[in-house]
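dumping this here before i forget
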Amino acid sequence: MKKLVQVEEVEGEGLPALMGEQIILFCGNYFYAGKLVGVNDSFVKLEDGGIVYETGDFNAPKWKDFQKIGTVYVMTSSIESFSKGK
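structure:
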C-alpha cells in the first residue's frame, strides 16, 4: 500500500537561499565549488568555480586542492548534497 506524503515548499530554503554565497556541491563524480549566481530546474551556475579534488580539513580557510575553471554549470540531477563553501 502506498503511503501518501505531503510536500511543503518552504521559502528561503535550499539552493536559492544560498544565491551570491560561496558554496560546494557534492556530486556523484566530483565536488564543485564557487559563487552561486544562478539556479533553475536543470542546472546551477557557479562563478569563479572549479573542481575540489581534495577538501582537506573543512575548518581550513581554503580547499586543499581546488582547480579553478571559471564559470561552471552543474546539472541539478547530479547534485547529491550542497553546503556553504569557502
